[in-house]
Write a structure and sequence with these properties.
Length: 154
C-alpha cells in the first residue's frame, strides 16, 4: 500500500511542479534528513552517556534513539510520505511530542510485577505454602514491596 501511495504522491507533485523539481525535493529531503539523523543521533548518544554518568536511567534518550532510527529508516525509503514521516521523527520538537505519547503508551502497558516469597521453612511449612504476593503497578513498586512481609500479614 505504501509504494502505491508514494507513487501517486510523486505523480501528483510532479504534475503540479514538474518532474525535475520533484526529484530535487526528494533528493534535498533525503540529504538534509541524513544530516539531521546523524546530528540528532550523536546528540542523543551524548545525552545517553551523560545520563549514565550521572546515575540516571536514560529512558528518554533510549526512546529518542529508537525514534531517530525509525526516522532514518523512513528517510532511506524513497518517497514523499516516508520522507515526511522521517523528518517528523528527526526534528526535536515533534519527536518530543511523539516520545511523550509513546512513553505514556508504554507506561500503561508495562507493569511492574514484584513477587515476594517468604520461605516459610522456619515455621515448618512446605515451600509451596510460602507467602506470595504480586503487585501490579506501573514501574515503581509500592513501599511495602521493598520489605519482606511479617507473619501478621495474610
Amino acid at each position: 500500500l505504501t509504494p502505491i501511495v508514494e507513487l501517486w504522491l510523486l505523480i501528483e507533485i510532479g504534475g503540479r511542479i514538474g518532474a525535475l523539481p520533484t526529484v530535487g525535493v526528494v533528493l534535498v529531503t533525503g540529504i538534509s534528513g541524513a544530516h539531521l539523523a546523524r546530528r540528532e543521533g550523536l546528540r542523543t548518544l551524548r545525552e545517553f552517556h551523560r545520563a549514565l554518568n550521572e546515575g540516571r536511567m536514560p529512558g528518554e534518550q533510549l526512546l529518542d534513539g529508537f525514534l531517530i532510527l525509525v526516522g532514518g529508516a523512513f528517510l532511506v525509503t524513497p518517497g514523499v510520505l516516508t520522507d515526511t514521516l522521517g523528518l517528523v521523527l528527526l526534528v526535536p520538537p515533534s519527536r518530543a511530542v511523539i516520545r511523550e505519547r509513546l512513553m505514556r503508551w508504554l507506561e500503561k502497558r508495562i507493569a511492574y510485577h514484584a513477587v515476594i516469597f517468604t520461605s516459610g521453612m522456619e515455621s515448618g511449612q512446605r515451600s509451596a505454602d510460602a507467602y506470595e504476593r504480586v503487585y501490579d503497578q506501573t514501574f515503581d513498586p509500592p513501599p511495602e514491596a521493598k520489605k519482606p512481609p511479617t507473619d501478621s500479614q495474610p
